[in-house]
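The instructor's notes for this session suggest beginning with a concrete chain rather than abstract definitions. Hand out the sequence below and ask the class to guess, before any prediction is shown, which regions might be ordered.
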Amino acid sequence: MVRGKDRDPDFEGAREELRTYLEKGYPIYIAETKAGDLVGYLVCRVDGEVVWAESLYVDPAWRRIGIGSRLYAKAEEFAQALGGEWPYNWVDPENKAIIDFLGRRGYDVLNLVELRRSKPGEKGFKSIRVGDHCFNR
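After discussion, reveal the predicted structure:
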């Protein structure tokens, strides 16, 4: 569910996104069961010496047991190996799960707020507070 809308899985879109990551040589860390089933992954995007945690996913059945934390630790190690301190994250402000996850790891808002006008017919807006400012969504 993204912004209050259920979406069917877009496997072709996912394949194309993976193909792009592979073509660009982005590091991809995976978590799998002993039987070899994929249960999570993290993709890093590299811009010079800056590492972005581009995409983190853990299968819902495998969440809350440390898989995301171990994957993210790999991204942190990778960022440090390139001379940076930590990966950067671009997060949708409505994605409470990843905001809480990153907050538990010591991450906080740096300086970016993206604003746009509502699209025609867009529904489900709510207010978002960033520091002392409140924005309607």
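Then share the key points. The first helix runs from residue 11 to 23. The CA atoms of residues 73 and 105 lie 10 Å apart.
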